[in-house]
Amino acid sequence: MISHPLSRRMTLKGLAVSVAGWSTTSWLPALADVTQSAPTKPKSVILIWLNGGPATIDLWDLKPQHANGGAFRPIATQVPGMEISEHLPMLAGCANDFSLIRSMSTREGDHSRARLVSLTGYTPQGAIKFPAVGSLVAHEFQVSHDIPAYVHIGGRPTVTNGGFLGPQYAPFVVGERGRRDAPGSGSLRVADLAPSSIEQQSERLQLLTGLSAQSPVSAASVVGALDSAQDRALRLMNPQAASAFQLEEESAAVRETYGLGQFGQGCLMARRLVERGVSFVEVTLDGWDTHSNNFERVKELSQQLDRGCATLLKELRERGLLEETLVVCQGEFGRTPRINGQSGRDHWPSSWSMMLAGAGIRGGQVVGSTSADGIEVESSPVRTPDLMATIFRSIGLDPRKQNMSNVGRPIRLADPEGQALEELL
After folding, report:
1. Which is more confidently placed, 39 or 64?
2. Residue 179's CATH number
């Protein structure tokens, strides 16, 4: 049936008038609100993940006058009144760029659960597949280029998929080269582009065939993950995209300044990636599970952290990137103020510290405090939802923004119980 031209024109005209009348009272104000709240330019986040739970009482919140304080001494920073470990001298020299939260107080003391909560912002709930914060940031900013929007450097990521956002928002993994290289040698490879053996390919095809026969839904998720990995690999064949991972393009002097171990080179790669607009980069420094020989191990790890992190902050500042890049430095929890019988410290989520820098964060601040023995938070306790709300606010995202989960329930970027730390913003 063909509509009469005149009646069709009149109908469209009436529809246009109706829409215009509705939009002036509803749609346009809503659009204005979105425009005002949306960031004018997508920011980037670099998460320096201290895997294993660092003894932050030996990094950011020393207790030299108490037996719990151990062997390390505090040193002054360029911020009056802010003192940090003697093994972080380079960071002490750029304290104006970062702020400390000394009153983190969380619940989870198990590594796996604590990591999951720290990296998603939510306690596991039934069948909900919570995405990592890196996936959320990549999803919200939707920066389109051939380099993956969420890159994980060093070790295996805790959240290996994109949660309910889908496999296209899973972390793209850059790890150490083959087992023949010494751990921490600084030799990095793009793991997602590593060639598979014939045996591995055969196993994957058999798995896919089996899933197809048993469950179309399961098969679809596997196909989605494989398609996403293939798409990333094909896009990275663009020489300009692949060059972001080529540290050989940097001078020997710059590479050495970051430190030639895996962590230092990971920080350098993070700088190269955010320069190219990557939304979220995770750099892991492993080895903080110091149940024994805490002070010897923390000293060595602190030297790596100091060199890599301080150089990263310095280069971001000098290149005009620090105002557009949020740097977060934390682990899954802290360690016991009391020293155990093996000169170590055990798991301690009740009172610990972390660092924030760049983007919308005011530098040179200290939030909260702990008791003289380090056991209790004395002021301004901060929980994971508060930290997540602060992170999202600092990069221009509304923590209350919702995404539909895999169970059909809308989930906010940050737990609604979280309150952003206004004193840092």
Report:
1. 64
2. 3.40.720.10
